[in-house]
Amino acid sequence: MEIIHISAECYPVAKAGGLGDVVGALPKYQNQLGHVAKVVLPMYRTKFLYQHSWELVHEGSTSMGPNWFRYSVIKEKTNVLGFDLYLVDINGLLDREKVYGYDDDSERFLAFQIATLHWMNQWQHNPDVIHCHDHHTGLVPFMMKFCYGLEKLQNIKTVFTIHNAQYQGWMGWDKRGLIPDFDLWKSGMLDWRNNINPLASAIKCADKVTTVSPSYLTELRYEANGLEALFEYERGKCFGILNGIDNEVWNPETDPMLDTHYNAETVAEGKAANKAAVCKHFGIDGTKPLFIFIGRLVGEKAAEILPSAVGESVALHQGNICFVILGSGDPSIEYQLRELHYVIPNNYNCFIGYNEKLAHQMYAAADFLLMPSRVEPCGLNQMYALRYGTVPIVRRTGGLLDTVLDISEPDFKGYGILFDSPTAWDLNNAISRAVGWYYDEPGILDAARKKMMAIDNSWENSASQYIALYTG
Questions:
Q1: Given a cut of 70, is residue 410 above it in pLDDT?
Q2: Are 470 and 3 in contact (CB under 8 A)?
């Protein structure tokens, strides 16, 4: 089976969030199952582009409304990612360093979709499945089914995966003319609440729709940023498949970003060594429980509660607790987190920005990971934490609910801490529970670490579920 993944992100080529991690791993595991999975991505001007070798595979020209443009497609020569990677370049639109954040993002991703389909329409064969990811590729199923000149692609199966339904790619109807010509009677397949809505269009037009966890699919029927009725109506073709993680990249026994490696049998000693190094780097006390947060500093992650929660928790535990935060986002949250270091310098520090190596080191060093998210379609951080023997403290939502079992479960079968509300009060209660359940009971903590590290959240299972979905 030949599967074409079309996406705006793919780690390590270009990544802004979990979408990049998924598209960077899923195709590789599908190939390992004996299929042919490929990825098509915009040609951003990232480091990956300049550090690898490429060959030109196609040049073409087409139009976006009244604007005629040329595009080219290049292919990575060495298959370094474990799958064929194609980059689509359009001068003036895709030749930029960042993935998102430009005033013309709607036009950029629409042109990318048009160029990709124009290229595929000229292939000598058809792939079996086109798998689109998030709203940046949400108009592909519509265009394949209804746009003139693409009739060759009409019968290819389409699957659309929603990584985050909060972002839908809304466009005004004044931009309808930018979409290739189609029967205007089909305009309703683009519309939601008097706007062109690429996410809604993909849900309507794709053959099957997936979310990145079963619980997130359930939540979208009640809270989907205005699309609740659509998810209820289309629920027959919607499926929740939990994301996986790449166990080759996230493996504390071989991780090249760690100075000290460990496995389930040596987890106590290994984490102690990594903790000492990270705490020394940040200038905090390595003999105390270490809590970390890694992620975007935005309301979706409930990051605004972190400054007060950290300060209150340090006071509540009389200084016998430490925190390190890695992330960037809302400038006001960044400012508060920086200032907090001057108030409790021995117990807290932060790195504003993102550093992949430091993230790996923090997972290996920490005793606990904080995820108070308001919205978490799947969440990968908690799976990385489990892999590294770090106890996740998470809010009951989305994929967090699907992957973390509370310690209070009967017979102490759990291995994490869950709480209900994205508030500093609830988070601090969870932190206190963590200290009481785990850190004050070394035997329970050691047993939990071994249990967590034995959990298989790898992509093998998820990749098989996608193959079954394609063929079902």
A1: no
A2: yes
Q: What are phi and psi of 103, to 5 degrees?
A: -65, -25
Alpha-carbon distance of 59 to 370, in angstroms, equals 47
Q: Structural domain boundaries of the chain? A: 2-244+460-471, 267-453
Amino acid at 221: R
Q: Would you tell me which CATH number, out of the four given (2.130.10.10, 3.40.50.2000, 3.30.70.270, 3.20.20.150), belongs to the domain 2-244+460-471?
A: 3.40.50.2000
Q: How far apart are CA 428 and CA 422, in angstroms?
A: 11
Contact, 123 vs 153, CB < 8 A?
Answer: no
Sole residue written with tokens 């996410």: 199
What are the φ/ψ torsions at residue 297 (nearest 5 degrees)?
-90, 75
The helix/strand/coil state of 14 is strand
Please give the class, per CATH, of domain 267-453.
alpha beta
Non-local (6+) Cβ contacts of 415 within 8 A are: 386, 391, 404, 405, 407, 448, 451, 452, 455
Give Cβ neighbours of residue 156 (< 8 Å, ≥ 6 apart): 126, 127, 128, 129, 130, 144
Which pTM value belongs to this model? 0.90
Q: Compute CA distances 189 → 131, 192, 193, whole Å.
A: 19, 8, 12
Residues 6+ apart with CB under 8 A from 108: 42, 93, 94, 102
Question: Does the pLDDT value for residue 412 go beyond 70?
Answer: no
- pLDDT digit string (tens) for 291-327? 999 999 999 999 999 999 999 999 999 999 999 999 9
- Mapped onto helix, strand or coil, the DSSP state of residue 335 is helix
Q: Which amino acid is at 31?
A: N
Q: Would the CATH topology of 2-244+460-471 be identical to that of 267-453?
A: yes
Burial of 274 (0-12, 13-18, 19+ CB in 10 A): buried
